[in-house]
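Severity: low
Component: inverse-folding endpoint
Summary: output formatting inconsistent between runs
Steps to reproduce: submit the following structure tokens with default settings.
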């Protein structure tokens, strides 16, 4: 099983504005992200990201995707293929039959997966924006990971995708 963290961020590492606004993310980036999620057939997100994602009109593209929300709180899920896990490892157990698993935020979830040494690769789509106040790609946590750049790709005139391998000790 390969675990891939896939995120869009501003050049200064923000994944959303303070009010969870992600309207600055381009259609090209969404298409790249959506394609990766549909190809994998699954996605793991945090509770806030779940609420943001399920309120997007494009979310209908994920109707055949198995979705796991990592949250200690219970809440109403909107899809039949949606599940709640209390930890990253429990989320992985739910998706154990997939070859590739996509982790897609938010910052707290991203840090949890890295802290537990559960990420193999990172795809970071960098948008040509800078946000002064917002939600960082990684919430403060006690981890340090070395990465190896595998590929850079231009996904539009102003956007690049960075593909890293997480080096395991």
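Observed output (run 2 of 3):
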């Amino acid at each position: 099983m390969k675990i891939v963290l896939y995120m869009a961020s501003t050049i200064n590492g923000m994944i959303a504005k303070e009010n969870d606004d992600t309207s600055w993310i381009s259609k090209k980036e969404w298409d790249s992200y959506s394609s990766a999620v549909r190809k994998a057939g699954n996605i793991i997100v945090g509770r806030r990201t779940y609420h943001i994602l399920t309120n997007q009109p494009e979310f209908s593209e994920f109707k055949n995707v198995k979705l796991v929300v990592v949250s200690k709180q219970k809440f109403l899920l909107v899809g039949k293929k949606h599940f709640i896990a209390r930890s990253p490892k429990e989320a992985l157990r739910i998706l154990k039959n997939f070859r590739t698993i996509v982790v897609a935020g938010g910052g707290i979830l991203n840090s949890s997966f890295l802290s537990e040494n559960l990420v193999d690769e990172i795809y970071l789509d960098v948008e040509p924006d800078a946000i002064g106040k917002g939600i960082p790609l990684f919430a403060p946590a006690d981890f340090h990971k070395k990465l190896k750049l595998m590929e850079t790709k231009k996904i539009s005139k102003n956007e690049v995708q960075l593909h890293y391998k997480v080096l395991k000790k």
